[in-house]
Amino acid sequence: MVFLTHLHFDHVGGLVDLPVTTPVYVGAGEAQERSRVNLVLGRPADAALRGYGPLREWRFQPDPDGRFAGVLDVFGDGSIWAISTPGHSAGSTAYLVNAVDGPKLVVGDAVSTRLSWEQQMPQPVAPAARADAEASAQRLRNFAAAHANVEVFLGHQSRSEQAEAR
Ligand SMILES: [Zn+2]
To answer: Per-residue pLDDT for 96 more than 90?
Structure first.
């Protein structure tokens, strides 16, 4: 399986290395929004997804702790959580991976750079999505602040720069 944070073309290009039978998962509403984005950008995401089966969308549940717009315990064992972080795109999804060497929070472009993580820079999104984007980004920051051992992976930041993003 591949779990995508969102369907912008610069976040799906790696699919080409995987068999077309690989199930691909995205956040709820992401596939529909992609259709609109592709009208503008000339379908680069479609090119990356060509041949793969239908996109599968996460069915988020309400977060019992109220921290996020929605969450899903993907395997039911707490090992990987899909987290609804709308704003950057309609179905933007972060993933909390409880890896053997500690929890990793992969946030995609909900927060793309260390600068925006640390200085709470405004998200480069359409005005209608701005409130959602800011709320999602702040929820991720709050979660990381409450769990100091979580390693954060930002959408457009090198691995060496990620480590200090806590
Ligand atoms: Zn993006």
So the answer is: yes
2-160: CATH topology is Metallo-beta-lactamase; Chain A (3.60.15)
Q: What is the predicted pLDDT for the residue at 158?
A: 82
Give me ligand 1 centre to Cα 103, in Å: 23
Report the side by side order of strands in the sheet with 151-154: 71-73, 80-84, 93-99, 102-108, 151-154
**How far, in Å, from the CA of 76 to the mean position of ligand 1?**
28
C-beta neighbour count of 124 within 10 angstroms? 11
State the distance from the centre of ligand 1 to the C-alpha of 34, rounded, in angstroms. Answer: 11
Give the tens place of pLDDT for each residue, 54-77. Answer: 899 999 999 999 999 999 999 999
Q: For residue 163, what pLDDT is reported? A: 52
Q: Indicate the domain borders of the chain.
A: 2-160
